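Kindly go through one protein, given below as sequence and tokens. The question is how this chain folds according to its tokens.

***
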Amino acid sequence: MIAKAVKAKLEDIQPLRALFLQANNFQVRYNACHERGWTDSYLLTIDDAVAGYGAIRGQETAARDTVFEFYLVPALRRMSRLAFAELLAASNAKYIECQSNDPLLASMLFEFARDINSDTVLFADQTATTLAIPGALVRPRRSDDQVFDHRVEPLGDYVLEMRSEIVATGGFMTHYNAPFADLYMEVKADCRGRGYASYILQEVKKACYTAGRIPAARCPIGNKASRAALLKAGMRVCGFMLMGTVKAQKAEVGR
């Protein structure tokens, strides 16, 4: 059987990408890269029949060097290795980055890459929590609110007040694949370690569901405080971002 990878337009792969999203049913970290024009798309064929697609990420055209999506229709998935080798050859990709909860691309990563590492933990919602902090009020942020300086996260759409002081902010981003949204929060530096992070996350989760979105989240693998807050707010670890360098490839039999 002969596999080919041909550069295509984004609209050419959209029907296949819809299948990819449906099959995986999780938040895709780099979903917005497509609509922002930061990707190259490749249509994959087996014996001239459409089989799937691959996508290469890089904010600048010259930096399109990382495979981050790969999909084959189930009937042709036995040809994954052959099709992926063609994608690498056609795109000249130097890296593979994937979510460990994407079994197809993760299997290609471990076969085709070396020096695999992870720097990010992925979270999915697991349970509704009933955390309570006496005197705490979580509400939408107002334009006249006096909010502390933020060093990491955006200024949240929600604030947590304690005795009229804003001690934490949070929100959710909706530029991910529907119906998922990405939770975020930040706590004032001198107010940390008091449970405010997990409490505002709990309340933002409720707002997220009310908006018709399913909460998801991520944090650096070494950020123990954020990880603990997410777990306490009812999230669970659902995967890791994995990155590897493409190994030198031998010619595939049947190409």
Notes: The radius of gyration is 21 Å.
